[in-house]
Amino acid sequence: MQCYINTHCTILFYPQTHGTRCFHPTRLSVTPPQQEQRISHDVDEKSKLITSSSNPFVKHCLKLRNNSSYRRSHGSVLVVGTTPIREIYRFQESSQNKNVTMDCLILPDKAEIPNGLDESADSIVHVSSTVMRKISGLQSTDSIDAIALMKIPASFSNLDDDQKNCQKWFPSAHRILVLDGIQDPGNLGTLLRSAVAFRWDGVFLLPGCCDPFNEKALRASRGASFQLPIVSGSWNHLESLKEESQMKLLAGHPQHEGLIKPVFSLSQSFCDSILDTPLCLVLGSEGSGLSEKSLQACELVSIAMTGEYESLNVSVAGGIFLYMLQPKNK
């Protein structure tokens, strides 16, 4: 079964029968012919809401939440909670950047459309509290009054080996955050949020990073995944970007003995000296740190610490780097 959503309905294609069914908020004919009678008992026809977790639309939402390849193939993602949904649309209104589309707004039974979202969704679906918990993945949905099914923004690019037209990746490439094997979605989402807060131009994801539209990454980013260009590619792509934009490669790395190359300190004078220089800041994972390629290709920079800890959490260190190296006149 495949599911496609347009402005009027969700289209589900069943390869076994080569037939389609259309899901409307007020007409739940979303099953193959042999299943229609059974599913009709799961739907409260009076209130027109979805009450069954086995409903095909609910199953589609669960796959979007749990499966990265499914999200990519359908070009859709679930955003849980009114706050990140509002953040996304507030950014879109302020930037005049109309690259975000909400296909469907999922609300609890009898709930009103949250303020500010009444003109955003193409369709509205009401669900029972059980289904709301199932779709959100949360034990308690007391604070969850909306879930949005949104298109993955056009500002996200998943590059093939042959895609090396760097000018299309980032409208501006003065400050680019590069994440090297960041697998923890909470750290990745927090770094995306900090990159937006400190006005960086975009984020480049090297192999080994988690999906920025992972449910935990979305929760930590509070909608930042939709607010700046994100490119997923290889070191070959990054080197093309570096050469095309004449960028300096810096990498955050703790100062310790045994390093072959020097490590600069993240001081104000150091930051001022490269203020006008286009740069990529590379951050590695907490577990394994920077990859060998990053260690070889980048100038290393450390955060001076008076305490005895060897290093900081990558999202904490990243926030400091992003603040100190942020563009000043943007």
Automatic annotation (TrEMBL):
<dbReference type="InterPro" id="IPR029028">
    <property type="entry name" value="Alpha/beta_knot_MTases"/>
</dbReference>
<protein>
    <submittedName>
        <fullName>Putative 23S rRNA (Guanosine(2251)-2'-O)-methyltransferase</fullName>
        <ecNumber>2.1.1.185</ecNumber>
    </submittedName>
</protein>
<dbReference type="Pfam" id="PF00588">
    <property type="entry name" value="SpoU_methylase"/>
</dbReference>
<dbReference type="GO" id="GO:0006396">
    <property type="term" value="P:RNA processing"/>
</dbReference>
<dbReference type="InterPro" id="IPR029064">
    <property type="entry name" value="Ribosomal_eL30-like_sf"/>
</dbReference>
<dbReference type="InterPro" id="IPR001537">
    <property type="entry name" value="SpoU_MeTrfase"/>
</dbReference>
<dbReference type="InterPro" id="IPR051259">
    <property type="entry name" value="rRNA_Methyltransferase"/>
</dbReference>
<dbReference type="GO" id="GO:0032259">
    <property type="term" value="P:methylation"/>
</dbReference>
<dbReference type="GO" id="GO:0008173">
    <property type="term" value="F:RNA methyltransferase activity"/>
</dbReference>
<dbReference type="InterPro" id="IPR029026">
    <property type="entry name" value="tRNA_m1G_MTases_N"/>
</dbReference>
<dbReference type="GO" id="GO:0003723">
    <property type="term" value="F:RNA binding"/>
</dbReference>
<keyword id="KW-0808">Transferase</keyword>
<feature type="domain" description="tRNA/rRNA methyltransferase SpoU type">
    <location>
        <begin position="176"/>
        <end position="323"/>
    </location>
</feature>
<keyword id="KW-0489">Methyltransferase</keyword>
